[in-house]
């Protein structure tokens, strides 16, 4: 029986390790975390993250070959393979603040492995890290090992997207496994290939050197975010010229060299990864004395900030240049549909801007709790404090409740339940102040139909 330990029971560690247990009943998987509340939730009926299909996977294997625990040391001692899936947020202070990845969590987890391991371990970098982090992990492991045990390090970056994590994990485009190009490195790599090959076709399990694997993760996220910023930049031109961004995206996306994915204009990308990973790449480029490369990738993030700001300005301008005391309904707070994750969500920037303009912001999201929304809006640096949030923000239990009496409705997250087929927009119109405005930040509504009802509609990337 192979024993796997995963350090970090978050959006990546939880689902990715649970899927290994689900697919390989003869492998024992223990997911550990220092956060007791998170582990308690993983062991309850109410899992700490919302992800379609996740409950089914966890409930099928929990207590059989899938375990959640805070006993990090024991799980390390028992494991043959150890995934390190801890968070790597952008550094907030010190050298590289605002750009470099904070590797403190990686370092703490690595030191723990070195201190408690008594048998050889394969340590797998699952977290997204700057290129050559494996080298630092190796140095830490070798310098701190108490029993002189052998450690092999692999890079196995995760490509799952929140909202589709389970299908991404069960049927991935590819799995990357990087290793040192030594006989021991190849042997360790083969052990992990053997695990994934149980359910993933061999040709999709790609092996390469450690540094290529580490850089490929940053590169993939940078390229994806770049597409969004590119279409968002074009959306500004559309609004100014009468071109329609949906038509432009369709025209470009049907070119087989370009392809249709990630060409949806929006209020801006969010999520815990895109911005952080691009800034990470920017920092890496600066460290390598490549300022032009750094500036090139930085512009992807700059464009995203511009898009969020442009959209909020459009709201204020359209509402006769003032939103003071006006009720504005924000539909959606998660950074995208089918997840409760709000990290870097465009909704945070939007809400904070509207609160600063002294609007009354009524927020509804199907999966984000009131507590989380308030936490996000009072984080340092967001621009709104507790007193302002108490006074100007109202968390609602339905879209209808948020829209009742509102001057404007803003689609921030593309949840299916906000689409025309699911919400009664006539009922919403009847309950709103007149003129009733809709701002579609996700291009999910049928503007002509809404205009027939009587709404004034403003859509990203369209001038009418
Ligand atoms: P997360 O913040 O949801 O989870 C990380 C967990 O690690 C937390 O629960 C934390 O308590 C735990 N942790 C930190 N230090 C620890 C330690 N020393 N011992 C035990 N537990 C510890 O983060 P998330 O979203 O799961 O991301 C993890 C990594 O995966 C990051 O590097 C991220 O960039 C990467 N990634 C994230 C994706 C996403 O969609 N969220 C997708 C692909 C990669």
TrEMBL record:
<dbReference type="Pfam" id="PF03720">
    <property type="entry name" value="UDPG_MGDP_dh_C"/>
</dbReference>
<dbReference type="GO" id="GO:0051287">
    <property type="term" value="F:NAD binding"/>
</dbReference>
<dbReference type="InterPro" id="IPR008927">
    <property type="entry name" value="6-PGluconate_DH-like_C_sf"/>
</dbReference>
<feature type="binding site">
    <location>
        <begin position="264"/>
        <end position="270"/>
    </location>
    <ligand>
        <name>substrate</name>
    </ligand>
</feature>
<dbReference type="GO" id="GO:0006024">
    <property type="term" value="P:glycosaminoglycan biosynthetic process"/>
</dbReference>
<feature type="binding site">
    <location>
        <position position="343"/>
    </location>
    <ligand>
        <name>NAD(+)</name>
    </ligand>
</feature>
<protein>
    <recommendedName>
        <fullName>UDP-glucose 6-dehydrogenase</fullName>
        <ecNumber>1.1.1.22</ecNumber>
    </recommendedName>
</protein>
<feature type="binding site">
    <location>
        <begin position="335"/>
        <end position="336"/>
    </location>
    <ligand>
        <name>substrate</name>
    </ligand>
</feature>
<feature type="binding site">
    <location>
        <position position="162"/>
    </location>
    <ligand>
        <name>NAD(+)</name>
    </ligand>
</feature>
<comment type="pathway">
    <text>Nucleotide-sugar biosynthesis; UDP-alpha-D-glucuronate biosynthesis; UDP-alpha-D-glucuronate from UDP-alpha-D-glucose: step 1/1.</text>
</comment>
<feature type="active site" description="Nucleophile">
    <location>
        <position position="273"/>
    </location>
</feature>
<feature type="binding site">
    <location>
        <begin position="217"/>
        <end position="221"/>
    </location>
    <ligand>
        <name>substrate</name>
    </ligand>
</feature>
<feature type="binding site">
    <location>
        <begin position="158"/>
        <end position="162"/>
    </location>
    <ligand>
        <name>substrate</name>
    </ligand>
</feature>
<feature type="binding site">
    <location>
        <begin position="127"/>
        <end position="128"/>
    </location>
    <ligand>
        <name>NAD(+)</name>
    </ligand>
</feature>
<feature type="domain" description="UDP-glucose/GDP-mannose dehydrogenase C-terminal">
    <location>
        <begin position="329"/>
        <end position="447"/>
    </location>
</feature>
<dbReference type="InterPro" id="IPR001732">
    <property type="entry name" value="UDP-Glc/GDP-Man_DH_N"/>
</dbReference>
<feature type="binding site">
    <location>
        <begin position="273"/>
        <end position="276"/>
    </location>
    <ligand>
        <name>NAD(+)</name>
    </ligand>
</feature>
<comment type="similarity">
    <text>Belongs to the UDP-glucose/GDP-mannose dehydrogenase family.</text>
</comment>
<dbReference type="GO" id="GO:0005634">
    <property type="term" value="C:nucleus"/>
</dbReference>
<dbReference type="GO" id="GO:0003979">
    <property type="term" value="F:UDP-glucose 6-dehydrogenase activity"/>
</dbReference>
<feature type="binding site">
    <location>
        <begin position="8"/>
        <end position="13"/>
    </location>
    <ligand>
        <name>NAD(+)</name>
    </ligand>
</feature>
<feature type="binding site">
    <location>
        <begin position="86"/>
        <end position="90"/>
    </location>
    <ligand>
        <name>NAD(+)</name>
    </ligand>
</feature>
<keyword id="KW-0520">NAD</keyword>
<dbReference type="InterPro" id="IPR017476">
    <property type="entry name" value="UDP-Glc/GDP-Man"/>
</dbReference>
<feature type="binding site">
    <location>
        <position position="257"/>
    </location>
    <ligand>
        <name>substrate</name>
    </ligand>
</feature>
<feature type="binding site">
    <location>
        <position position="33"/>
    </location>
    <ligand>
        <name>NAD(+)</name>
    </ligand>
</feature>
<keyword id="KW-0560">Oxidoreductase</keyword>
<feature type="binding site">
    <location>
        <position position="442"/>
    </location>
    <ligand>
        <name>substrate</name>
    </ligand>
</feature>
<dbReference type="InterPro" id="IPR036220">
    <property type="entry name" value="UDP-Glc/GDP-Man_DH_C_sf"/>
</dbReference>
<dbReference type="InterPro" id="IPR014026">
    <property type="entry name" value="UDP-Glc/GDP-Man_DH_dimer"/>
</dbReference>
<dbReference type="Pfam" id="PF03721">
    <property type="entry name" value="UDPG_MGDP_dh_N"/>
</dbReference>
<dbReference type="InterPro" id="IPR028356">
    <property type="entry name" value="UDPglc_DH_euk"/>
</dbReference>
<dbReference type="InterPro" id="IPR014027">
    <property type="entry name" value="UDP-Glc/GDP-Man_DH_C"/>
</dbReference>
<feature type="binding site">
    <location>
        <position position="38"/>
    </location>
    <ligand>
        <name>NAD(+)</name>
    </ligand>
</feature>
<dbReference type="Pfam" id="PF00984">
    <property type="entry name" value="UDPG_MGDP_dh"/>
</dbReference>
<dbReference type="InterPro" id="IPR036291">
    <property type="entry name" value="NAD(P)-bd_dom_sf"/>
</dbReference>
């Amino acid at each position: 029986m192979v024993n796997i330990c995963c350090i970090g029971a978050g959006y990546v560690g939880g689902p990715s390790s649970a899927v290994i247990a689900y697919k390989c009943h003869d492998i024992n998987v223990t997911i550990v975390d220092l956060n007791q509340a998170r582990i308690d939730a993983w062991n309850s009926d109410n899992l700490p993250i919302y992800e379609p299909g996740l409950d089914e996977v966890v409930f099928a294997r929990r207590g059989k070959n899938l375990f959640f625990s805070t006993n990090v040391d024991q799980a390390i001692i028992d494991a043959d393979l150890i995934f390190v899936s801890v968070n790597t947020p952008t550094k907030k202070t010190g050298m590289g603040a605002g750009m470099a990845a904070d590797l403190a969590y990686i370092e703490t987890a690595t030191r723990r492995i070195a201190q408690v391991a008594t048998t050889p371990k394969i340590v797998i970098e699952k977290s997204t890290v700057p290129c050559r982090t494996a080298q630092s992990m190796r140095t830490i492991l070798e310098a701190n090992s108490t029993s002189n045990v052998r450690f092999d390090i692999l890079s196995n970056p995760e490509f799952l997207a929140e909202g589709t994590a389970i299908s991404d994990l069960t049927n991935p485009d590819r799995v990357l496994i990087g290793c040192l190009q030594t006989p021991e490195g190849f042997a360790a790599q083969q052990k992990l290939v053997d695990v994934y090959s149980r359910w993933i076709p061999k040709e999709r399990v790609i092996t390469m050197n450690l540094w290529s694997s580490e850089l490929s993760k940053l590169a993939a996220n940078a390229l994806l975010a770049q597409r969004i910023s590119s279409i968002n930049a074009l959306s500004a031109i559309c609004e100014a010229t009468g071109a329609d961004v949906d038509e432009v995206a369709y025209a470009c996306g049907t070119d087989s060299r370009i392809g249709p994915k990630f060409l949806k204009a929006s209020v801006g990308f969010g999520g815990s990864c895109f911005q952080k990973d691009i800034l990470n790449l920017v920092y890496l480029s600066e460290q390598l004395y490549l300022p032009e490369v750094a500036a090139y990738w930085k512009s992807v993030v700059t464009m995203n900030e511009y898009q969020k700001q442009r959209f909020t300005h459009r709201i204020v301008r359209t509402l006769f240049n003032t939103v003071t005391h006006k009720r504005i309904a924000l539909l959606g707070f998660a950074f995208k549909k089918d997840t409760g994750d709000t990290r870097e969500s465009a909704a945070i920037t939007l809400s904070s801007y509207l609160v600063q303009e002294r609007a009354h912001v009524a927020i509804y999201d199907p999966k984000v709790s009131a507590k989380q929304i308030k936490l996000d809006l009072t984080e340092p640096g967001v621009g709104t404090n507790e007193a302002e949030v108490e006074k100007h923000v109202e968390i609602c239990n339905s879209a209808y409740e948020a829209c009742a009496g509102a001057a404007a409705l803003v689609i921030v997250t593309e949840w299916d339940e906000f689409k025309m087929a699911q919400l009664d927009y006539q009922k919403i119109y009847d309950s709103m102040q007149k003129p009733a405005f809709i701002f579609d930040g996700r291009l999910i509504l049928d503007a002509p139909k809404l205009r027939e009802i009587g709404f004034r509609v403003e859509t990203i990337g369209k001038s009418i």
